[in-house]
Amino acid sequence: MGSIAVITDLRETRRAQSRLLERTAQLNSVITISPDGIVLLSRNDVVLEANPAFLSLTGLSADQVLGSDNHDLDQALQERCDSTSRYVLSSEIQEDQTDILRLQRPSVRFLQRSMRLMRGDHGEVLGKVLYFRDITRETEVDRMKTEFLSTAAHELRTPMASIYGFSELIATRDFDSTMMKNMARTVHRQAGRLVGILNDLLDLTRIEARAGKDFRIVTQNLEELIQTTCEVFVPLDQRHRLSQVLESPLPTVSLDGDKFQQALGNLVSNAFKYSPAGGRVQIGVNLEPQRVGVWVSDSGLGMTPEQVARAFDRFFRADTSGKIPGTGLGLAIVREIVELHGGSVDLKSVYGHGSTVTMWFPFSGGA
């Protein structure tokens, strides 16, 4: 009977070892394929394991990390972090707490670091797990959102303050008819500016939110789209000369006709605004084997290299005098529309001599 008991115990031991090996293999697979950085340390704070994601995020090698202690790991990480921010040692992090590492090398990244203790069946500490999650994109989105809301609030406050101030004067004081008309015109003009900003904001937000899902991409006659867009502007603006530099026949292209005309209309509108009376505005097409470019050129104010670099930023205005109407969102909408078509936008400008904006769309050939 004793022999049978020993054999049974051996079988149970082997089964337990097999289950342990299986669990270990599963755990190793999870750690290896995890997109987040994971570092396992022994109870003596020696690095036992560092997964590929951690090495990729930090630029450290396995030779640098494995077998090192907590102090060496902290030193290697601190050397890669922004020197202006305080580095918290791993030993100072409490369980379930998090902090942010601002890495400068191998690239600028924000890593959220947390720590959990590994415990045995009786609660004894077996080691630590350091967990690193890349929150770079989330941090950038939060920064952009804060910046956008701040800028939008400023842009909306300006016309609102004007409307509020003049309407209060009209309501509380008596003016002659000429003064009343002038103030009413100012209120109307600022209300129009406010409506324009809100409409452009809604357009941009809708386009971004849908990410092109509501685009109706069909084969379009490029020449007809350009002609239709031009017809809208000719009767509206008699102070500028609008001409077309088109080679016939133009090819058909696959795009959303309404969105294309909205983008082209924004470019023509900008060209008119920034060109002097009598200035020339041209529309043309460049054909390349894999793409087609529709460009709008003006003889207006032009931009400095610094202004060109910011031209597609929301609310950016090359003219800061306030004399030229606009919301500063037109080019941002153009870029969003073109990029959602899989294309790109180029801007070339010479200060004092005008600008040329080209919308490039994918093109597979054909007429």
How can the largest sheet be summarized?
Answer: 5 strands, antiparallel
Low-confidence stretches: none
Instruction: Give me the CATH architecture of the largest domain, please.
Output: 2-Layer Sandwich
Helix content: 40-55%
Strand order of the largest sheet: 2-1-5-4-3
Shape assignment: elongated
Q: What's the number of domains?
A: 3
Strand percentage, roughly? Answer: 15-25%
User: What is the CATH superfamily label of the largest domain?
Assistant: Histidine kinase-like ATPase, C-terminal domain
Distance separating the two termini = 92 Å
What is the CATH top level name of the largest domain? Alpha Beta
CATH topology of the largest domain: Heat Shock Protein 90
Average pLDDT across residues?
A: 82
Structural class: alpha+beta
Structure characteristics:
alpha+beta, 5-stranded mixed sheet, 12 strands, Beta-Lactamase, 3 domains, elongated, Heat Shock Protein 90, Helix Hairpins
